[in-house]
Design brief:
Elements (H helix, E strand, L loop, with lengths): L3 H15 L20 H10 L1 H13 L4 H23 L6 H20 L3 H8 L3 H6 L8 H9 L3 H7 L3 H13 L4 H13 L5 H7 L5 H13 L6 H17 L4 H17 L3
Length: about 270
């Protein structure tokens, strides 16, 4: 059996991690703000997720029932995928966010192809009520998403999922479609476009304050205003930003997850 969506999911994960320089993130040149990881950790982690994406594709291809139930079945596969990821990385969290979001899109794309419907609407139907179910009644918040929901009322990636990932649908995917330059340049520009509009829970957690988001958006916009990765001045600015992020322990983990989905959908439609 062919697993075309799973193939593209693996490719999307690898495309993201080799793109450089990404502020605070792992790439082939640096571990950024993640001294416990390197490019090889991400390769090992990516390959460990192959079975999960195949299961997600099978689930979407063959499902005939309530889409919210399809999502719950997917989450069970996701729990096993996390276990395989941690086994392959010796306990390091490389792709927990991608297991959630990219798994949703592999499953939804497979379902959409079999049923000739819009993938973003499928995602909305799959995740309807997710924020309320997962976050509304948490008594002892532990994850960044749970803590920030209680502290700031921000629904994070769950809110994006329930809304059908509007940042991807309306901003990053259209942006990547019209981006120019090398693939590395296009993906860098797309990452910083995402950073200019996203409330990245990983960045908020590491920065220690939601107010720092304004600075992130200002930095990201300045990079794009300088002309993006095709311009030497902008690239030099991004390298300085990378050093700042490493020094301050900032990371764009949430933005990276949204970039992965954007890459995956661009590969699905043949844009890249």
């Amino acid at each position: 059996m062919k697993y075309l969506h799973a193939d593209l999911a693996i490719k999307a994960l690898l495309y993201e991690v080799v793109t450089l320089p990404k502020p605070g993130l792992v790439d082939p040149a640096t571990h950024g703000s993640h001294p416990d990881m390197d490019i090889y950790t991400f390769i090992d982690s990516t390959l460990s997720l192959r079975t999960y994406f195949e299961k997600a594709e099978e689930l979407g291809r063959n499902y005939d029932g309530k889409l919210s139930d399809m999502f719950e079945k997917l989450r069970k596969h996701g729990i096993k995928a996390e276990q395989r990821m941690f086994a392959s990385t010796k306990g390091i969290n490389t792709h927990k966010g991608a297991i959630f979001s990219l798994g949703i899109f592999v499953c939804a794309c497979s379902y959409a192809k079999s049923n000739n419907c819009d993938v973003f609407k499928i995602v909305q139907s799959m995740t309807q009520g997710l924020v309320e179910r997962d976050l509304a009644n948490i008594k002892n918040p532990k994850t960044a998403g749970e803590i920030e929901y209680q502290k700031y009322g921000k629904a994070g990636i769950r809110g994006q999922a329930e809304a059908g990932y509007p940042i991807v649908n309306q901003i990053s995917l259209p942006f990547l479609r019209q981006a120019t330059g090398t693939l590395n340049e296009k993906l860098l520009d797309t990452l910083m476009k995402i950073a200019s509009v996203t409330e990245d829970s990983n960045f908020i957690k590491r920065a220690g304050s939601i107010e720092k988001l304004d600075e992130l958006k200002k930095w990201s916009k300045h990079f794009l205003d300088l002309g993006g990765a095709k311009e030497a001045e902008a690239l030099a600015y991004l390298s300085r930003l990378d050093n700042l992020f490493s020094e301050k322990n900032y990371s764009l983990g949430g933005c990276a997850d949204l970039l992965i989905i954007t890459i995956f959908l661009a590969l699905e439609e043949g844009t890249i």
